[in-house]
Each structure stands twice: as structure tokens, then as C-alpha cells.
Write a structure and sequence with these properties.
single chain, 302 residues, alpha/beta, Rossmann fold, four-stranded parallel sheet, 12 strands, globular, binds 1,3-dihydroxyacetonephosphate, binds iron/sulfur cluster, pyridine nucleotide biosynthesis
Length: 302
Amino acid sequence: MTIEAKITALKQTKNAVILAHFYQRPEIQQIADYVGDSYYLSKIARQVDQELIVFCGVHFMAESAKILSPHKKILLSAAQAGCPMANMARVEKILRLREKHPDAAVVCYINSTAEVKALCDVCVTSANALSIIRRLPQRKIIFLPDQNLSSYLAGQCPDKEFISYPGYCIVHHRVMPEFVLSLKQKHPHAPVAAHPECRKEVLALADFIGSTGAILSYAGSSPATEVIIITEEGIRYELEKQNPRKNFYFPDQLPMICVNMKKTNLENVLWVLEDEANAIEIDGAIRRQAAGCLEKMHLLAN
Ligand code: 13P
Ligand code: SF4
């Protein structure tokens, strides 16, 4: 019996469901029941009937699922898969910012811990940040932890004043505009699709800016037969599956790899399913406060 067959059989016996992010390894995306961006996965985790969820992604994703569905058992396939950006936002610093700007809405990116979400007014993902922020009555926005997403949103909402936290993604922030320029030189007919976690100078060169899910939709609907993609390379699997006749180019000056996303493999998926290991637990009071922040996202994003 292959490891994939064992996972499928166990999943059926236990009535479990597997959720995976687009940055996961191809073999993980293949065995997953649902694959998507952070917003899609957050919605699906709430909607599925199954009470046992194996999350193939990073910690904040599984934790967000547990915050909204405390009665479900959420297993993180790789216990050590964190998101360095999520850990950059510090509680004391957020409290100080709140004190300094009492009239501001405190908005957190879903790439944040439950403790941080518990302190914020509303959560967003890159798929819904713009529409949610435009709907907030406050003019002043404290945005954390991603400085690049914050600067992109500020550019799109000129009527708002943004106070940005200095966090960043260790994968997207390393992409320099020269990398994009050299790809554009090699492929002059290819439009550029970039994730908003990239630097402002990189986003200035993009034809399209959006979440991983939005990048996929753009690549599929664009008449272009080749597209330059500025995000983590795991998305290539779904891009090529959906668009077998198109070519996709990624920066080659550095590996576009999130090591944390790659900590999940078939072996640890099988192991967490067998042992029901790595179950996410959150302190009750923090969970309840953080739930308000995530519930508001789902309410405003609709
Ligand atoms: P998406 O919500 O666009 O999938 O992004 C998640 C993420 O961690 C990007 O680095
Ligand atoms: Fe975090 Fe960046 Fe990895 Fe996304 S790609 S999980 S933001 S480190």
C-alpha cells in the first residue's frame, strides 16, 4: 500500500479532511481535499462537516481554524511550521500603538498569532484586505505585521492614514526590483503577477497584485501565454495544472521557497492522522477575543 493510499484510507475511517495551502509540495496538494489561499482555507475550515482537520500549511492557518471552530480537532501536519512574519508582531508594541492612536482601527493580517488577533479590531488576508479596509469607518489604520502589504493598501486607500508595523515576509521581501527587470528583459511579452508581501519597488513593476488565489485566477484568465510570477514557487503546481499550455517564470536569483511551508511531507501527514498528533490548543479567553477579530473579517468580506 502506498503512503498516499494509507492516508486516503485513514482519512475515510476517521472522517477527516485535509486542507493545504498553494505553497505546499505537489504531493501534498494532490492528496488534499481542499487547496487554496489563506482566506479560502479559513472559510473552508469553518464550513466542512468533518470534525477532524489536518492542516498542511503554517501554524497561524491551523490556529485560525481552531479559533473559529473550537469544537473541531485541528492537527498541524508539521509542528515546527511557523511563519516568521507572524512572530514579528509583539503584543507590548501593539498596546503602545493603540494607546498612541486611540482613534485608529487596529487591523491584523491573518499571518499573526492568536494573542495578536485578540488585541485587534479586524483581521484581513491579502484576498480581502482592500475591501475590508475601505469599509472601515476609521480614517486611521494601524496595520500589522506586514509593512509591504500595509504600504500597498495605503497606496490604494489615499483617504486613509496608515501606521505600519515593520514586519515582513522572509521570502517576498528578499525579491529586488532588478530580479523582476531581468525576467521582463528575458520575457518581454509576459505580464508580471506579484503577491502584495513584495516590496513597493517590486509591486511598482507588476501588472497584477493579489493573493495566491487571485494570482491563479489572473494567470488563468489573462490572454498571455506566459506570466512572470513573484511569489513562493509552490504555486507553480496549480498554475501548470490549470494552464498546461502556458509558461510561468519565477525569479531565479534566489530560491522562492518558504522553508516552513515545505516542512509538511507525506510522512508527517500520515503520522498526525494516525496519532491525532499536533492538535492546536488555545487559551480560552484569548481564543474568544481572537474569534471576534476573525468573525469580523468573515462578516465584512462577504
Ligand atoms: P495568501 O493568503 O495569498 O495565500 O498568502 C499567504 C502567505 O503566507 C503568503 O506568503
Ligand atoms: Fe510566512 Fe512568508 Fe512563508 Fe507566507 S511565505 S508563510 S508570509 S514566511
